[in-house]
Structure formats: structure tokens, C-alpha cells
């Protein structure tokens, strides 16, 4: 049996799961269905798959450190982490993965997986991959169709040919209306389009060259001029930006004569909305799903997510309540698809809740906005052991640092000092400074900023171990 190279697609913003999923921290990095994130669960379900190599991950540049950190937490070392300078949909992403695979090894079988889905029956999924292998080895371009459980109007469908096991694809169809979806369900011939694929790298490139040569041309240029940066492979920005944006479905799968589908029933969900997450979660006897500190009385079929405080509900039905530090969502189950309208309004008004949480993750750790007002801002900063912020300066603000726990080494212009619990220092406006955790435990401190402008883009970096450019 051929080796399998898992290709994990780590893009996407998951706006329909706002306010938990946001542009800077989308759903694939969230533990929505257990103790690990959806990305980590995707990596872990590959364990035990015969012939599976270390995965190749594709992410946008903004999420690169989160992807690397989440892999480190579960002891997964990616074969490569390819960075997209700009999103161009799934066809170009898979193309650069295939081209890179062909450069670095013999022609592998690619197993392309979104990193933000739930699969309850992981053993069944691995068995399906093994069952699909002969069709992929024989040159087929295979997708996994999900056996439908309801007349869903939010999914695309695949009409399969007659037979058992791997079948020919007769047609890809768009998201149907309710009546059409009911016909699809009753026929037994249609399956949900899961977005999971399997094929030999060279076969995908051959079909892409036939049906979307402009995509292939730009992806070849993006790979040829890519640059290594620590653990990352950065695609050439100019070449990739010029690549047409298209999905693998439109670019290849709907046009090729070699499309195959294997119907599977493995407890799949794309977690595309709060109601979808409610459907796959464990319910109490009244159909309620609770996360965090929740108290409910006389409620039915609700999904209640509490972040850091008590959420109480009384006498409600079919409702979604999601509470975070800086935003609260209350919605009827029938209207959860309209969450994206709220996100669009937030973006149009340039509201930070569309993009960031109050806790913001950085490669060195995280910071949380505690309070802010005119000319001041207070943050709680956590620096991982051995990590260091960039050597930097600010044009418009000064900073006070108070160590709560841990050991800090502080550089301020020509002065270098060590601070421990309850000690503090002052960083004047315009001073070149750096913060490092030289201890074995996380460093926690309170930062008080004061000045005429407190935006994150007021940073001039002189040196950075993470390769970040100036803000």
C-alpha cells in the first residue's frame, strides 16, 4: 500500500460561530467538541492510519504560530507548514501541497482534510481511507460523501453512481432548496460534500493542468520562489496573489472524468453554525447543551456557552446563548445562519469584536486587555518559559511593567535588569526595550500603557526571533 501524506487545510474564519470564532482566532483553533481543538483532533485521528506520514499543513501567515504551537502541544511535528500570503481557496492550496510533495519525495497519495470538522467515528474514518486507497492508487480523484441524515440546505451534494463502496461521481450539485433536499434524501443517491479528498499528487496536477492551467502556473511560481523561514515555507507573495481563487470542486472535481466518491457514515459535521454544534454535542434529557458555568431551569433544546462567568437561563426553548469576555450572542436556533450578518456589520463599523478577542495570542505567549480609557490601557501579559518579545520601541506611549509571578529579564536602552515577583520598571516613550522570560515557569505581569496613541501598530521592531516585520 502506498504511503499517505495528510494535507491539512488550516484556513477559514468560521464567522458563523461568532463570538467564539473570530478572524484572528477562528474555529479550527477552538476546543469546541472536547479538550483539544478541532485542528488538534484532525491531527490525532490520523494516528493508527497505516502508511500515514507526518502531515503537511497549509495556513495563512497570521495563524502560523498558533498552528505550530497547537501541533507542539500534542507532540505532532508537521512535515512542512506552508504559509499562504493571501487566501486563494482550496484548489491553489492543494496545488502547492501536491507540487511540494512531488519535489520532496516520490509521488504520494494525498489525503486532503479540512482542519475544522468533527468526526465522531474515527476508527470508521480510518477504515474508509484504507478502503479508498485502491481507487486513488489506480488514478482516481476520490472524495468522501457523507450519508445524509436530514434534508440539509446548507451543504452541496454529490450524486453517486450505482453500486457499493467507491462509486463514480455522476454530478456535483449546489446547495438545494428544502424541497429538492428532501428529494435527494429520499432517493438515497445523493451524499453531502464533505470537502475531504484523496488522490495521487501527480494525478491532481495532471487534471489541474488540463482544467485550470493558470492556477497551476502561478502555484509553480509560488513554490519555485518560496523561502524557508524557520519551521515555515513561505510562498512567493507576488506569484500566489496573482493566482486565480477557486475551489477544488469548481476547478477540477466537477470537470474530471475520474471523480470517485466513497459514501461514509462516521458522525461527520462541518460545525458550520451553532445549531450544527448543538446537533453533534451531548444533550441532557431536555435536549440542552451546556458549557462552562451554566444554571438552567425549565429550558429545552438550548445551547448555552459560558466563558468566564455564570450564565443563567429560565424557561427558554430552541435558543443559542454564547457569552465571551467582550460579546454576548443570543439567537433563536432558526436564525443562527444570520450570525454572519452581525459580523459583517461589526467589520463595516471597524469594531474590534469582529477580529480579536480580549485575549490575543502571540508566538511568545498572550496578552489580555483588562481596562482602557482616554490615554491609558492595562494589559495582563503571559510570556512562555524561554520566550522573548521583540526588541522594539514606541513613538506614542510609555509603559509600566509589574511582575506578578515568574522571572523577567528587561532590556531598556543600555540597561539590562532582572525582575521577580512584585518588582516593577518603567519604559519611557521612545526607549528601545525587550521583555524575556528567563525562568522555567510562565512569566505573568501587568502592563500599564499611557500616551496619545495606544494601537498595536505603534511598534518599531529592531530584532525579533520570530521573524515578524515592523507593525
Relevant CATH superfamily of the largest domain: Spore Coat Polysaccharide Biosynthesis Protein SpsA, Chain A
Number of DSSP strand runs: 30
Coarse structural class: alpha/beta
Report the helical percentage.
Answer: 10-25%
Classify the fold: give the CATH topology of the largest domain: Spore Coat Polysaccharide Biosynthesis Protein SpsA, Chain A
Condensed summary:
The chain contains eleven helices and 30 strands. It has 471 residues and is of the alpha/beta class. The protein folds into three domains: 4-269, Spore Coat Polysaccharide Biosynthesis Protein SpsA, Chain A (Alpha-Beta Complex), CATH 3.90.550.10; 274-342, no CATH class; 359-463, Jelly Rolls (Sandwich), CATH 2.60.120.
Question: If you had to describe this structure to a student in words, what would you say it looks like?
Answer:
By secondary structure, the chain is an alpha/beta fold. The protein has three domains: 4-269, Spore Coat Polysaccharide Biosynthesis Protein SpsA, Chain A (Alpha-Beta Complex), CATH 3.90.550; 274-342, no CATH class; 359-463, Sandwich (Jelly Rolls), CATH 2.60.120. It contains eleven helices and 30 strands. Strands 20-21-22-29-24-27 form a six-stranded antiparallel β-sheet, with no helix packed on it. The chain has a five-stranded mixed beta barrel with strand order 6-9-7-8-12. Strands 14-16-18-19 form a four-stranded mixed β-sheet, with helices on one face. Strand 1 (4-9), helix 1 and strand 2 (56-60) form a beta-alpha-beta unit. Helix 3 packs across helix 6. The protein is globular and about 75 Å long. The protein starts with a strand and ends in an 8-residue tail after the last strand.
Amino acid at each position: 500500500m502506498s504511503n499517505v501524506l495528510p494535507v491539512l487545510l488550516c484556513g477559514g474564519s468560521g464567522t458563523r460561530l461568532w463570538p467564539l470564532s473570530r478572524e484572528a482566532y477562528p474555529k479550527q483553533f477552538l476546543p469546541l467538541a472536547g479538550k483539544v481543538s478541532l485542528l488538534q483532533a484532525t491531527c490525532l485521528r490520523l494516528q493508527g492510519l497505516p502508511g500515514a506520514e507526518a502531515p503537511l499543513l497549509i495556513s495563512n501567515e497570521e495563524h502560523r504560530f498558533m498552528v505550530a504551537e497547537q501541533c507542539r502541544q500534542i507532540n505532532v511535528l508537521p512535515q512542512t507548514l506552508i504559509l499562504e500570503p493571501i487566501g486563494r481557496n482550496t484548489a491553489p492550496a492543494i496545488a502547492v501541497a501536491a507540487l511540494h510533495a512531488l519535489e520532496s519525495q516520490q509521488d504520494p497519495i494525498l489525503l486532503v482534510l479540512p482542519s475544522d470538522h468533527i468526526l465522531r467515528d474515527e476508527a470508521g474514518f480510518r477504515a474508509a481511507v484504507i478502503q479508498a486507497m485502491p481507487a486513488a492508487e489506480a488514478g482516481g480523484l476520490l472524495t468522501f460523501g457523507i450519508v445524509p441524515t436530514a434534508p440539509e440546505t446548507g451543504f452541496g451534494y454529490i450524486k453517486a453512481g450505482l453500486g457499493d463502496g467507491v462509486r463514480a461521481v455522476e454530478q456535483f450539485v449546489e446547495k438545494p432548496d428544502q424541497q429538492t433536499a428532501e428529494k435527494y434524501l429520499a432517493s438515497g443517491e445523493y451524499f453531502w460534500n464533505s470537502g475531504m479528498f484523496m488522490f495521487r499528487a501527480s494525478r491532481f496536477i495532471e487534471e489541474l493542468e488540463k482544467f485550470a492551467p493558470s492556477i497551476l502556473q502561478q502555484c509553480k511560481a509560488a513554490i519555485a520562489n518560496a523561502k524557508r523561514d524557520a519551521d515555515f515555507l513561505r510562498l512567493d507573495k507576488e506569484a500566489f496573489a496573482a493566482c486565480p481563487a477557486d475551489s477544488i470542486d469548481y476547478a477540477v472535481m466537477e470537470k474530471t472524468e475520474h471523480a470517485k466518491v466513497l459514501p461514509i457514515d462516521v458522525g461527520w459535521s462541518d460545525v458550520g453554525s451553532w445549531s450544527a454544534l448543538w446537533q453533534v454535542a451531548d444533550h441532557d434529557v431536555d435536549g440542552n447543551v451546556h458549557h462552562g458555568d451554566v444554571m438552567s431551569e425549565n429550558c429545552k433544546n438550548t445551547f448555552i456557552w459560558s466563558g468566564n462567568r455564570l450564565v443563567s437561563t429560565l424557561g427558554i426553548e430552541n435558543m443559542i446563548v454564547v457569552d465571551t469576555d467582550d460579546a454576548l450572542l443570543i439567537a433563536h436556533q432558526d436564525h443562527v445562519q444570520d450570525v454572519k450578518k452581525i459580523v459583517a456589520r461589526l467589520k463595516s463599523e471597524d469594531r474590534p469584536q469582529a477580529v480579536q478577542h480580549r485575549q490575543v495570542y502571540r508566538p511568545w505567549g498572550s496578552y489580555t486587555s483588562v481596562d482602557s480609557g482616554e490615554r491609558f490601557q492595562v494589559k495582563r501579559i503571559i510570556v512562555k518559559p524561554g520566550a522573548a518579545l521583540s526588541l522594539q520601541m514606541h513613538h506614542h506611549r510609555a509603559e509600566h511593567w509589574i511582575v506578578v509571578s515568574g522571572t523577567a529579564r528587561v532590556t531598556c536602552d543600555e540597561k539590562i535588569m532582572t525582575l521577580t515577583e512584585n518588582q516593577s520598571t518603567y519604559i519611557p516613550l521612545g526607549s528601545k526595550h525587550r521583555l524575556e522570560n528567563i525562568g522555567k515557569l510562565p512569566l505573568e505581569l501587568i502592563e500599564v500603557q499611557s500616551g496619545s496613541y495606544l494601537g498595536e501598530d505603534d511598534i518599531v521592531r529592531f530584532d525579533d526571533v520570530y521573524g515578524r516585520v515592523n507593525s
